[in-house]
């Protein structure tokens, strides 16, 4: 961080993304053209009694269609040092990265910093804010952003918001205008969208 501030730009805060840890393959990668050595993840050695960490009985809405937990991230049946499952420690990476980033920025700047993290855990709000991740430019996502923001207050993360106007997909004037009105009440309010989608600008047609 010190090198980046010295050589490029004296940032006051940082947005740390893809820190679930995210992955561009599902669970264990089987090939990597950029690496001379492929080291396979160790297989679990402890009994599960029929429990599959990648597909637990209470599935979450992962990727919008309840896919396995190891989709686009580290396999949740991977074993860490001491026999600890990734399933039980998954959010600790984002939490500890938030803590380290915040401490480093404040040590360098000698002032309060701003860190926004995609991966969080209850209590992360002492070190970082959060945004709700890559949402979609549709009415369903503007609706769900309200309970998302309120729920994170209960998790101890008060600085929270959603991508106003939606991240994925092209928005329209009505949706974007209404979302900007709602977004004014998010504790963390910002506009953000994907490369290749239509630009999102302040629109004047909504009364």
From TrEMBL:
* Keyword Hydrolase in annotation: yes
Q: List the InterPro entries hit by this protein, alphabetically.
A: GH (IPR017853), Glyco_hydro_31_AS (IPR030458), Glyco_hydro_31_CS (IPR030459), Glyco_hydro_31_TIM (IPR000322)
Q: Does the keyword Nucleotide-binding apply?
A: no
The superkingdom listed in its UniProt entry is Eukaryota
Kindly state which keywords UniProt assigns to this record, in alphabetical order.
Glycosidase, Hydrolase
Q: Which family does it belong to?
A: Belongs to the glycosyl hydrolase 31 family.
This chain belongs to which protein, by name? Glycoside hydrolase family 31 TIM barrel domain-containing protein
Q: Which organism is it from?
A: Amphimedon queenslandica (Sponge)
């Amino acid at each position: 961080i010190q090198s980046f501030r010295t050589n490029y730009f004296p940032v006051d805060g940082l947005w740390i993304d893809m820190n679930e840890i995210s992955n561009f393959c599902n669970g264990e990668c089987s090939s990597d053209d950029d690496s001379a050595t492929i080291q396979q993840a160790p297989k679990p050695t402890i009994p599960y009694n029929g429990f599959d960490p990648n597909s637990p009985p209470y599935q979450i809405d992962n990727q919008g269609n309840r896919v396995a937990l190891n989709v686009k991230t580290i396999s949740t049946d991977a074993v860490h040092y001491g026999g600890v499952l990734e399933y039980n420690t998954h959010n600790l990476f984002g939490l500890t990265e938030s803590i380290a980033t915040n401490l480093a920025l404040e040590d360098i700047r000698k002032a309060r910093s701003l860190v926004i993290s995609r991966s969080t855990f209850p209590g992360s709000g002492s070190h970082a804010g959060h945004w709700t991740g890559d949402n979609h430019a549709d009415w369903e996502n503007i609706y769900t952003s309200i309970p998302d923001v309120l729920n994170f207050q209960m998790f101890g993360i008060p600085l929270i918001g959603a991508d106003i106007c939606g991240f994925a997909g092209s928005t329209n004037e009505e949706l974007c205008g209404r979302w900007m009105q709602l977004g004014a009440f998010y504790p963390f309010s910002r506009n953000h969208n994907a490369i290749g989608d239509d630009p999102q600008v302040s629109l004047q047609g909504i009364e």
